[in-house]
Write a structure and sequence with these properties.
The complex is a heterodimer of chains A (154) and B (131).
Chain A (H helix, E strand, L loop, with lengths): L3 E9 L3 H9 L1 H7 L4 E4 L6 E5 L5 E11 L3 E8 L3 H4 L4 E10 L3 E10 L5 H23 L3 H6 L5
Antiparallel strand pairs in A: 1-7, 2-3, 3-4, 4-5, 5-6, 6-7
Chain B lengths: L7 H24 L2 H12 L5 H6 L5 H13 L3 E6 L2 E6 L2 H30 L3 H4 L1
Antiparallel strand pairs in B: 1-2
Classes of the chains: A alpha+beta (154), B mainly alpha (131).
Chain lengths: 154, 131
């Protein structure tokens, strides 16, 4: 099995419902995901896309599975870097499970059938930063970028 | 600066910090052992290895490797994915990112603003021009 895959896990002190909204709704993602928003009807088979703050479409795909507030599976292809677009589709599986101590275990598994996938390598740099900022937003009300922008943590 | 106010927001920040410290203790303890750091390096080189594959590169008993993996899992530095009957181990860099955000980026930011301050003093800006 020569798939390229990465797995990210983070425990966040919140409820699955709040985390679900934070993952999907533009008013939340804009705050912790470098200004990124997603567009989709969020039903199985619906088109999905990720849009950068300047309006560029970064990635496109399709919702393969969705069950609120438990899991989403997205067929995902990069659109703005030709070498990544040429790799075709990867699959991103997002799972939310209630865990100990009033936390939710959020796991993200991003896989491509292509060994040594550059797309998987590219997203692997981004996910930890995004998740760390998401955790900060949900637990303390301040995303990391905002702390940086104000020059000091409150 | 220490703010002595009592409100729901301050309590939320305090509780959040407390939990963060407990999580971080686990991460730093897990990283304090050279064999466990070696395991993370092995997973960085080839992600998603089984226990058997990891043991091939290590001069340790299978039982010792299992124990180290348990500590890494508890610290959330390793995530396990079952593929059929195979248990595969993935390096989870998220807690390392949190260390970066908390212990590295913050200090780097201070150094950068100190340099900015120095530049401002040397070049004689006033506060109005600054913003």
């Amino acid at each position: 099995m020569n798939k390229s895959s990465f797995v990210y896990v983070i425990y966040i002190r919140t409820t699955p419902e709040k985390l679900w909204d934070a993952l999907l709704k533009p008013e939340f993602t804009r705050q912790y995901w470098f200004g990124v928003t997603q567009e989709s009807r969020w039903t199985p088979g619906a088109a999905w896309k990720m849009v950068l703050p300047d309006g560029t479409t970064a990635d496109t795909g399709e919702i393969l599975e969705i069950e609120k507030p438990k899991h989403i599976v997205i067929r995902w292809r990069n659109e703005f870097r030709p070498e990544l677009q040429a790799e075709g589709f990867s699959v991103c599986r997002i799972e939310l499970e209630p865990a100990e101590g009033g936390t939710v275990r959020l796991s993200i598994r991003h896989e491509s059938d292509m060994p040594g996938s550059k797309l998987i390598e590219a997203v692997s740099g981004g996910w930890p930063k995004v998740l760390s900022s998401l955790k900060s937003l949900l637990e303390s009300g301040t995303p990391l970028g905002e702390i940086g922008a104000h020059g000091k943590a409150k | 600066m220490v703010r002595v106010t009592h409100g729901p927001v301050d309590m939320q920040v305090f509780t959040c910090l407390l939990f963060f410290m407990q999580d971080m203790d686990k991460v730093f303890k897990a990283l304090a052992d050279p064999s466990r750091r070696r395991l993370l390096d092995l997973l960085y080189a080839t992600n998603g290895q089984t226990l058997g594959e990891l043991c091939e590169h290590l001069d340790m008993t299978r039982q010792a490797v299992t124990q180290h993996l348990t500590v890494l899992e508890a610290a959330n530095l390793v995530a396990v994915v079952w593929r059929g009957r195979e248990k595969r181990h993935f390096l989870n860099p998220v807690p390392l990112q949190e260390i970066y955000d908390r212990w590295i980026e913050k200090f780097e930011r201070g150094r950068l603003s100190a340099l900015r301050e120095l530049k401002r003093n040397l070049e004689g800006w006033d506060d109005d021009e600054q913003e």
